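agent> step 3/5: call structure_predict on target 'Serine/threonine specific protein phosphatases domain-containing protein' (Meloidogyne javanica).
agent> reason: downstream docking stage needs a structural representation; sequence fetched in step 2, passing through unchanged.
tool.input:
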Amino acid sequence: MPGIFDIEKRRAKTNNMSHSTDLDVLEFIRRHLLRGKKEYHYSADQIEQIAHLAMESFEDQQTLLELNGPIFVCGDIHGQYADLLRIFHACGPPHKKRYLFLGDYVDRGRNSLEVVLAYGFFDELSRRFGNDRAEELWLKFNDAFAFMPLAATIGGKILCMHGGISPHLQSLNDIRDLKRPIPIIIEPGLIQDLLWADPNLLPSNEGFVHNYFRNCSVLFSEEALKKTMASLKISLIIRAHQVAQYGYDMFCGQRMVTIFSAARYHPELNNWSAVASISADLEIFFVLTRPDEAQNEHL
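tool.output (status=ok):
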């Protein structure tokens, strides 16, 4: 397999290719969305160019995004493209509304590629492009993912990430100062915790303990959450990373919300999905979706 850290070599190759391939990105996305739930037939060169453009866009952004409302915050999608389209239908198309996605875009669902281009991944690439080209495309997507921002604030008072807080998080500058690209193999520390930490639902006198459910990162207590939020001067944390039966779960009163945006993620759960809608003055309500209907529920 080519070296996973040879980003500059792959960047140069794609730059050379882009001069010979005319890709109208806006038209590509428009046709992609209009096709609906059907599996789209892409060329491998189109995929590589889109991944390259995404990487360049992420590289231009800060590690900690600083956003304002109104905005919709989405949790895990896991390649369930129908859920992504349902979100756009309920909340508004992405060229008219602003969205913040918190991670777990791909794997498990059969349409991970559609999810990534709209807004076991390697196995899907292999199925659609063959093993040789799949390896190259998989690395290109990982190059793009390596430059993604790691967290975001909304209105300076809401902190959003995929996983959770960390004993290494004392100031928002700790996130701002993180360097990208992020390696595929992540050592214990702030980056790993932002991506994989979970709330500790069991009573604990310790602020942070090893996350034995995932065998990486940490579990954090309610007391640890309160102290971290006070240190960061924020009033709410929105995170993803865990299934919520009714689309969202609260932790530590209403200080932290877990959002999950893939409905029927597991057949036995038959779970709802949720999107957090945040207004310009930081009022929050949830757009809840199940396979046959959607409704709004206020916090």
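agent> step 4/5: record observation. Confidence is low (pLDDT under 50) at residues 294-299.
agent> proceeding.
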